[in-house]
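Pipeline run #58 for the internal structure catalog. This entry was flagged by the ingest filter as a single-chain record with no existing model, so it goes straight to prediction. Upstream metadata was stripped on purpose; only the residue string is passed forward. Reviewer on rotation: M.T. Logging verbosity set to normal.
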Amino acid sequence: MLFWLLTSTTYGTWLPGDQRGFVSNVRAPAGPRKRHNKPGTPYDSQVPELERVARGNLKGPPVRLTYDHAKTLVDQWQITATIHEWRILAAAVMSNHFHLVVGAAETHHGSDLLRDFKSFGSRRLTEAFGRPRSGTWWTSSGSRRHLANGERVAAAVRYVLEQEFPLIVWRDETL
């Protein structure tokens, strides 16, 4: 089984150009677009013009999750994991993003897991609360970090369980 730390933000809450930092294609002063997303290297931050353009392109207001949304997501994610024979070790849902630590067979890549958790979660949220005005709950991608050993898995679980201002934190009680 391979373990992954999955993260995604809700639609419109963390845009390219954000002062908190972001990973997106940016143009160097005289050159092609580059994506600064290598672990351990600086990422881009505070590009107000880029953020202004991104905000102007939004199809609806930013999506902010509530406790009821978070509860619905965690319930659906447990169903999704059971169906696929994946194992969720920890989950945290905040108003503007989520984190999951998940184990899956080696045949499943983190991008598969993230896609399915977001997809099934979106369907369940839409059934329960209606479709957001933007037409989507999430940003288009997200982070999929492979956790290469038990030490990294344990660190990721701690990170998820210690999130600031969570709506819900869930952990596998067998840990």
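catalog note: The first strand starts at residue 2 and ends at 9.
catalog note: The radius of gyration is 17 Å.
status: ready for reviewer M.T.
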